[in-house]
Design brief:
Layout (H helix, E strand, L loop, with lengths): L5 H11 L17 H37 L2 E3 L6 E4 L5 E4 L4 E6 L4 E13 L8 E5 L2 E5 L3 E6 L4 E7 L1 E6 L13 E2 L10 E4 L3 E5 L2 E4 L4 H4 L6 E8 H11 L3 E4 L2 H4 L2 E7 L3 H9 L4 E6 L2 E6 L8
Parallel strand pairs: 5-6, 11-12, 16-19
Antiparallel strand pairs: 1-4, 2-3, 3-5, 4-5, 5-8, 6-7, 7-10, 8-9, 9-13, 10-12, 13-14, 15-17, 18-19
């Protein structure tokens, strides 16, 4: 056996230290495998995609905010009326359950009547025509007062002051009020474009256009919280009632739907119409949940 002193053993240990190979490596020093490389690449791609998606969403959101600011939407609730004064000084009064979108540019003032009814008081600006779109109908004015009512069956235009040009939406950009349009006249259906003067009403449907029977006062009575009916079908009276009330009228009998009503009711007091109907010998009014059923009892309805 060999014997070594302490100094010799220490010297040999120092000499062999450089030849020691560690059994484990720190994680950061371990060589990357192929799967680790793929995982790292995938993570980077996901992060890049997420960043791009975030930037895109932010851009879309900003563009949407800008568009909404340039094209504000105004709406009224059930039974509500509200007025909006535009930057050009024009005023729009919204009837119950009405939505409009406004777009003012240097070339024109464009209003889209999405649903409902509105009265327009237009500030004069010959360089920027005021155009109201109601479905496929375009009503063009410079400085005037008129009412537009968008119904499921078509659009009703009533002029209080001045004159408007009514045309199909696809030709509104080139139509000038009163330039080549035919005046609205009573009788047969008249093709567009044409113009409507103060005191006149035009009904535009898919079949054509014709003069309306309502007077200006009756057509705009809603601004005074009134509903005026003259020889109107009960079905139409019910439809008008439903615009102002949460509880909806339903006329279940065909004969009742065609009955004629001539009366004045409050648009803010549902009981005014219901009480009237309850006094009629041929009608039964039955309330059930959110609906009010108008049913036939066997006699005709008399009108006041």
């Amino acid at each position: 056996a060999h014997s070594y002193d302490a100094a010799t053993l220490i010297a040999q240990a120092r000499q062999s230290a450089s030849q020691v190979i560690p059994l484990t490596l720190a994680r950061s020093q371990a060589p990357a495998s192929a799967s680790d490389g793929k995982r790292t690449l995938t993570v980077r791609r996901v992060r890049a995609f997420a960043l791009a998606a975030g930037v895109a969403c932010a851009a879309v959101g900003l563009a949407t905010l800008v568009w909404m600011k340039q094209n504000p939407l105004y709406a009224s609730m059930v039974g509500e009326q509200r007025s909006i004064v535009l930057a050009d000084g024009s005023e729009i009064t919204l009837n119950s359950r009405t939505k409009v979108r406004v777009r003012l540019t240097d070339e024109q003032r464009r209003i889209e009547l999405i649903e409902g009814q509105a009265l327009f008081r237009v500030a004069k600006d010959p360089q920027r025509p005021f155009i109201v779109h109601s479905g496929d109908t375009a009503v063009r004015a410079v400085g005037t007062v008129f009412d537009v009512y968008r119904k499921s069956s078509g659009t009703v235009v009533t002029v209080t002051e001045g004159r408007v040009s009514v045309s199909g939406a696809e030709v509104e950009a080139t139509a000038a009020a009163g330039s080549t349009q035919t005046p609205v006249s009573q009788g047969e259906l008249t093709p567009l474009p044409l113009y409507v003067s103060a005191g006149q009403q035009l009904i535009v449907t898919a079949a054509g256009s014709q003069q309306g029977a309502q007077s200006v006062d009756d057509a705009t009575a809603w601004t005074s919280r009134k509903m005026i009916f003259k020889d109107a079908r009960l079905a139409d009276v019910a439809a008008e009632f439903n615009r102002y009330n949460v509880k909806q009228l339903a006329v279940t009998d065909q004969d009742l739907q065609d009955l004629r009503i001539s009366a004045i009711f409050s648009s803010t007091n549902a009981a005014s119409l219901l009480n009237y109907l309850k006094t009629q010998p041929g009608i039964v009014v039955r309330e059930q949940g959110s609906q009010i059923f108008i049913e036939k009892r066997g006699a005709s309805v008399s009108t006041p």
